[in-house]
Write a structure and sequence with these properties.
The protein is an alpha+beta fold. It has a single domain (10-325), classed as 2,3-Dihydroxybiphenyl 1,2-Dioxygenase, domain 1, CATH 3.10.180. The protein has helices spanning 20-27, 93-102, 167-176, 231-243, 296-299, 302-308, 322-325; strands spanning 10-17, 34-41, 44-53, 62-67, 80-89, 108-112, 115-121, 127-133, 156-163, 180-185, 188-192, 202-207, 221-228, 252-253, 257-264, 268-277. The strands form two sheets. The protein has an eight-stranded mixed sheet. Strands 6-7-8-5-9-12-11-10 form an eight-stranded mixed sheet, covered by helices on one side. A hairpin with a 3-residue loop joins strand 15 and strand 16. The chain is globular and about 50 Å long. The chain binds zinc ion.
């Protein structure tokens, strides 16, 4: 029974952007992630929900966005995921240094647990990192992207959450979610899922009692989702979390996976998501992300939804550049 509660790691991370077109321009056009689904926010159907991932949209490579047009920026802070790190081959860091500078990004360089890392933000201020690994996870390369194979992002490496206190969250992460303590560097505590070659297998908690509370808005993370293989294990998770006193939601059908949500200490919003059914339920793998997909319940509204959504790929002259978003 215990094995049910060992998550394989991060399923996806969902963040907030202030423009869908600029979000796509950056994640597809600069980072070279594949847009694997364009759909709408099921709870707010006149806004997009964009999903990025590797060529096969595998759990552990997925980053999703709610882009609310012109939404003011929030502030990453305590009680939030405050950085998302992607894995790249260590030999690719020279490429990325130049590529990101050419795109207008300001870079911070550091070493963490012995691995070199480039830090930067997306056009709306979301903190991102690239970690150079000697043997990155074997994810599926997206051939139609702008980044050469040798340098491409290989899924999520880790996510960092900032908290005021460690003990309650550590108990949740270790005893309930089955991640193992994997090291400490200063005030950063690392936890790992069993398979070190799986994308998204690391979860870092940074403890800073003085950190201001995060404020949600453009450029902040909305929630983080962890993997469970299927519906029965998800039900078991739900029961186990309830038993332990966590207020967990009913199962919600997200079409590409099923989800339960709960707030970890300091209101950090977490989700447990099933690996299946996956992103090919409504599109073939070759055409993932190619057109707007709506669940059956929203299909009657399609003409109105399409009329109100701004084009995802506006003509070049109407797109903002990174430096227009981040005037120095
Ligand atoms: Zn989610």
């Amino acid at each position: 029974m215990q094995s049910v509660f060992k998550t394989a790691g991060i399923h996806h991370i969902t963040a907030i952007a202030s423009s869908a077109a600029d979000n796509l321009g950056f994640y597809e056009g600069v980072l070279g992630l594949r847009l694997v689904k364009q759909t709408v926010n099921f709870d707010d159907p006149y806004t997009y929900h964009l999903y990025y991932g590797d060529a096969r949209s595998a759990p552990g490579t997925l980053l999703t966005f709610f882009p609310w047009e012109n939404l003011p920026r929030g502030m990453p802070g305590a009680g939030m995921v405050t950085a998302i790190a992607f894995a790249v081959p260590r030999t690719a860091l020279d490429f990325w240094r130049q590529w990101l500078r050419d795109a207008g990004c300001e870079l911070k360089e550091e070493e963490r647990f012995g691995e070199p890392l480039l830090g930067f933000t997306d056009p709306h201020g979301l903190p991102l990192e690239l970690v150079g690994l000697a043997s990155p996870p074997a994810t599926a390369y997206w051939r139609d992207g702008p980044v050469p194979y040798a340098h491409a992002i290989c899924g999520v490496h880790s996510a960092t959450a900032t908290l005021h206190r460690l003990p309650e969250t550590e108990a949740l992460v270790v005893d309930l979610m089955g991640l193992a303590p994997a090291g400490q560097e200063n005030n950063r505590y690392r936890y790992a899922a069993a398979d070190p070659q799986a994308p998204g297998h690391l979860w870092d908690l940074v403890i800073d009692p003085q950190a201001p509370l995060g404020r949600q808005g453009g450029g902040t993370v909305h929630h983080i989702a962890f993997r469970t293989p299927d519906d029965p294990t998800q039900m078991a998770w739900q029961a186990r979390l309830r038993e332990a006193g966590w207020g967990v939601t009913e199962v919600r059908d997200r079409r590409y996976f099923r989800s339960i949500y709960f707030h970890a200490p300091q209101r950090l919003l977490c989700e447990i998501a099933t690996d299946g059914p996956g992103f090919t339920v409504d599109e073939a793998e070759e055409t993932l992300g190619g057109s707007l997909q709506l669940p059956d319940a929203l299909n009657a509204m399609r003409p109105e939804i399409e009329r109100r959504l701004r084009p995802l790929r506006p003509p070049k002259s109407e797109r903002l550049t990174y430096s227009q978003w981040n005037p120095s």
